[in-house]
Each structure stands twice: as C-alpha cells, then as structure tokens.
Amino acid sequence: MNWASVGDFWAMGGKGLYVWGSYAVTLICVFAEIALVRGRFGGVLKRLGRMKHATDRGVIDET
Amino acid sequence: MTSSGKALSEKLPEFSGGINWFKYASPQTFYPLAGRLIPLFGWPALVLTVVGLYISFFVAPTDATQGESYRIIFIHVPAAWMSMVIYLAMAFWCAVGLIFNTRLSFMMSQALAPTGAIWTFVALWTGALWGKPTWGAWWVWDARLTSELILLFLYLGYMALVAAIDDPRRADRAGAVVALVGAINVPIIYFSVTWWNTLHQGASVSVTSAPKMASIMLTGMLIMALAAWAYSVSVVLVRVRAIMLERERNSDWVADRVAQLVESHR
Amino acid sequence: MLKILIAVVRRDLLLAWRRRADVFTTLAFFIIVASLFPLGVGPEPNLLRTMAPGVLWVSALLATLLSVTRLFAADYADGTLEQMLLSTEPLTLIVLGKVTAYWLVTGLPLVLLAPLLGVQFDLPQGAIGVLSLSLALGTPALSLLGGIGAALTLGLRGGGVLLALLILPLYVPILIFGAGAVGADAAGLGAGAHLLLLAACFLSALAVSPWATAAALRISME
User: Fold this and answer.
1) What is the number of structural domains in chain C?
2) Could you say which of B157, B184, B192 has the minimum Cβ distance to residue C166?
3) Which part of the chain is the Cytochrome c assembly protein domain (chain B) (predicted)?
4) Which residue from B58, B60, B130 is facing A18, i.e. has the nearest CB?
5) Are the Cβ atoms of B181 and C180 closer than 8 angstroms?
6) Total number of domains constituting chain A
7) How many CB atoms lie within 10 A of CB C53?
8) CB contact under 8 A, C157 and B195
9) In this structure, are residues C144 and C99 in contact, taking their beta carbons and an 8 Å threshold?
10) Tens-digit pLDDT profile for chain B (266 aa)?
11) Searching chain B, which residue's CA lies closest to the CA of residue C169?
C-alpha cells in the first residue's frame, strides 16, 4: 500500500491537481461519450418506432 | 474504379476458402453481430479499467524521479496509442471501402472518428497536465505533442467534411480521400516536426529518453491500454449500429428490426 | 499527352488574364498579411529578422488557401468541369494542367514578390535568395495539395473554412522545411538539407495529388 491515509491519497504528494485533473477529464470524456452514443442509438430507435407507428395508422405514406 | 471494385468483391468469396468474409460486409448481417459483440468488449473494458486503476494507484510504487505525477501516464500513454491506432483503423476501413465498394466500411470509419478524436484530446490534455509538474510548462513544441495536435486537426477535418456533405455516398468517399491523404501525411508530419525540433532546440527536455520503467508500472499501463482498446471497440460498435439504422432506415431489414422491437414492447 | 497539358494551361491562363483582378487580390492579401506582423510585434530589427521566414511563409500559405477555392469553382459553375470529366483525355492530366496554370498565376507572383518583402524585414542578401528558392519549390506543392481540398469541398456550403481545416495540417511539413531553410541559412548552417527535403515534398505531392484530386473530383461530381 502506497498511502498512509485518505488525505495522502488525494494529495498525491502535492501533485493532486495534475493527477486528478487528468483522471477527472478523462472520466468526463468517457462518460460523455457513452451517454452521447447511447442517446444517439436510443434516439434513432425511438424515431424509427414512431415512424412505424405513424405508417401503420396511415398517418403518413410509406416511402 | 467503382465497377471493377464491385466485380472484385463479387468474385472474391470464391477464393476465400469456404468462409464468406463478405457475409458480414452487409449492414444487415453485421448489425446483430455487432449487438452481440458490444457486451463482449464492454464488460472486459470495465473490469480491466478497475484492475488497471487499482494497479496504477495502489500497487505501482512512487517514481523515484517524478514523484506521484507520473501516475498520469497510465492514461496518457494508452490514450496516445489509441489515438494513433484508431486513425490507422479509420484509414484502413476507408481504403477497404474505396476498393471493395462496401458501404459498411465507410460507416465503420465514421463511427471510429469521434472516439479517435476524444482519445487525441485526452492525450493532449493529460500530456499538458503531466508536462507542467515535470517540465515546468503546460505545453512544449515537442515533436510528439505537435504531431498529436495535428492528428486532432486531421480528425476534426475528416468529421467536418463528412458532416458538411448531405449526400451520404459523396460524404463516404470524400471523407475516405481525406483520411487516406492524412494517413500518408502523418509520418511525414512527425518526421518534419522532429527535424524542426532538433534544429531549434526549443524543448530542453527530451520525451524520448524515458527512464527505464519498473515492470509493475509497465503492467499497469498495458492493462489500461487493453481497457481503452476494449472500451473503444464497444463504443464504436454502438455508434456504428446507430449509423446503420440512420442510413438504412428505408430498408427492409431495419423495418423488420423495428417491428420486432415494437412487438416486444407490447 | 503534352499537348493536352499545354492546351489546359493556355486556356486557364487566358481565363485568368481576363479576370486579372483576382490575381491582384491574392497578391495584395499576401503583402498586407506580411506587413501586419511588424505592426503587431514591434519594429525591433533583430526580432523581425528572425521572424521573417516564418511570417512570409505563413502569409504565402494563407494566400494560397484563400485563392485555391477558385481552382475549380468557375469550371464547376458553368459546367465545363463536367465536360472535362466526360472527356476521353486522362483527368489526372487535366488536373495537372489546371494546377500548373493556377500556380503560374498565384504562386509565381508570390515567389517574385517575396524578395521585396524580405527587404522590408531586413533579411540579409543570402537569406533572401534562399527564401525565393524555398518558395519556388514550396508553393507548387502548396498548390498541388490545395487542389485536393478544393476538389473535395466543391460546391459545399462553408467550403472555405472547411478547406482550411482540411489542408492546413497537410501544409505543416512544407511550412517547416520552407521557413526552416531560410532560418538555417541565416544561422549559418546552410540551407541545402532543407531545400532537398522541400524538393522531396514537392515531388511526392506531384506524384500523389493529381491522382487524388482527380478521384476527389469524380466523387464530388457524381
């Protein structure tokens, strides 16, 4: 174990800002990408489902 | 060129020894396969990340010369690797698309680009945060950093061009030309920046002469790299599925898929 | 083969002559950008002398970027480009002819004008010679690479900005070797290696880009 206490862990030997800054931004990027991609996929499915619903009820023509 | 490519793709299965590789070249067959592959890469990515982070913070010892700030390399190096690997993969799919005239290849490269750009950004960001405590500067005009920055511009140019063209066929092919010309240029750019850097002596520290790494640090880095790779594969597969549905929304197979989904929700 | 090349070059030169104002706009842009730098950083001669190669090269690069959008635009608008694509002559050759004419009209004047701007920046005599030589080798490569971007962004909205994003990264090696040649000469290192590398860039651009531009034109006109 490298760290004597939790505070020690967060301080990172005085380099906490740099280390946690890097990891935080990476995590934000990864989570944002996951959310965006899943949103995109879900959005497409939802739109296609709505389209199908509309065509089934004859609201719009099937083209 | 297009017609000959098509002819080739029709002829090739005969020579491929029974396995029809082109079977998965159509979105229709690739879509369910991608769906099955996503968890196969996604879960390992999560497990590897947890293990990798544990090694990076609790097992790997403090570096003798750099102190704790070296722990940034556990994400910096994998991110930089991924940014380059993904660009190569993108160019590869573009070349495949142009030669064999398969639309799925272009969708693959378009799905890869945003992930590659994000990794490039992460590599630059973590590079800056690592450089400040280590070299005393957020940014130095080092060959690697500069090439990485230009790689980001190449990604952005590709994505902007594809987004600007409404006709998907033209967007695919125009993007492919840009990606391939960029791929030829990347080594030239890297060489030219290295050359420029050695002449100007701008950066007084050399990034290349890294001190010998303890093997546990290397292990941690490799596990993080594997995690980044698995993550990228799964997120790209989700994106390519979305692109497939968007682009092929008028085809029968998408209609079947949607019908199944609607059915299952009733 | 040579006949077609000459025919295309002659036609484009004639067209450019009829639209002389365009050429002068590019030149004026080059001069203005280069003249703005001293106003921005101050008139200190030593500073200007060290900055001059980079400033002149970046100005030349921006001037090329600004004018290269017009490379195919007129032919695209009046339908000539479609005829060229349908013609039995190789498109690569036609592209090469058009780029040559374009360079003669916009690149060559930059090369000829650069010594004058070099004097403005108080560059020593030898360095001015190297500057002209490096521009003479580099601007054709800029034109050739610019052609790919111009063909890809043909008829797109916001094409100009897009073009900059696409081709500026590709210009990096040329800028480095071109400006580096002048810098190396001024530092007494000799510009030979830089100029050779610049020539290599030019030759590889000559080998790749007419072909890539022709492919891009086919894609854009489909």
Assistant:
1) 1
2) B157
3) 45-200
4) B130
5) no
6) 1
7) 26
8) no
9) yes
10) 344 444 444 444 444 444 566 667 788 888 888 888 999 999 999 999 999 999 888 888 777 677 778 888 889 989 999 999 999 999 999 999 999 888 899 999 999 999 999 999 999 999 888 888 887 888 888 778 888 999 999 999 999 999 999 888 899 999 999 999 999 888 888 888 877 777 655 444 444 445 556 778 888 889 999 999 999 999 999 999 999 998 888 888 888 888 887 777 66
11) B150
